[in-house]
C-alpha cells in the first residue's frame, strides 16, 4: 500500500496495518514478484511517498550517528 494512502487513512482516524510476508526465500520471492507485477502502477512512488521516505531515511541516519 502506498505510504501516502496509509498516511491519509491514519490521519482520518483509521487503523492501518502493513502485511509483511515471511518464510523461505524460495517461497517468498515468487510471491513478491507476482505482487509487484499486479501492482506495477502502484510501484511508481508519488511525490508525497518520496518525501516521506526521504524524511524517514534522514531521521534514521541521524539517529544512527548519535
TrEMBL record:
Q: What general EC class does the enzyme of this chain belong to?
A: oxidoreductase
Domain of life according to the entry: Eukaryota
Coiled-coil residues are none
Q: Which GO terms describe its molecular function?
A: FAD binding; proline dehydrogenase activity
The record ties this protein, via InterPro entries, to:
FAD-linked_oxidoreductase-like, Proline_DH_dom, Proline_oxidase
State the reactions this protein catalyses.
Answer: L-proline + a quinone = (S)-1-pyrroline-5-carboxylate + a quinol + H(+)
Q: Name one GO cellular component term.
A: mitochondrion
Single GO BP term:
L-proline catabolic process to L-glutamate
Q: Where is the Proline dehydrogenase domain?
A: 1-44
The regions listed as transmembrane in this protein's record are none
Q: Which UniProt keywords are given for this protein, alphabetically ordered? A: FAD, Flavoprotein, Oxidoreductase, Proline metabolism
Enzyme Commission code: 1.5.5.2
Kindly name one Pfam family recorded for this protein.
Pro_dh
Q: Which SUPFAM superfamilies match?
A: FAD-linked oxidoreductase
Cofactor needs:
FAD
Question: Do you know which PANTHER family this protein is assigned to?
Answer: PROLINE DEHYDROGENASE 1, MITOCHONDRIAL, PROLINE OXIDASE
Biological role stated in the UniProt entry: Converts proline to delta-1-pyrroline-5-carboxylate.
Q: Please report which protein family the annotation says this sequence is part of.
A: Belongs to the proline oxidase family.
Q: What is this protein called?
A: Proline dehydrogenase
Species annotation? Corymbia citriodora subsp. variegata
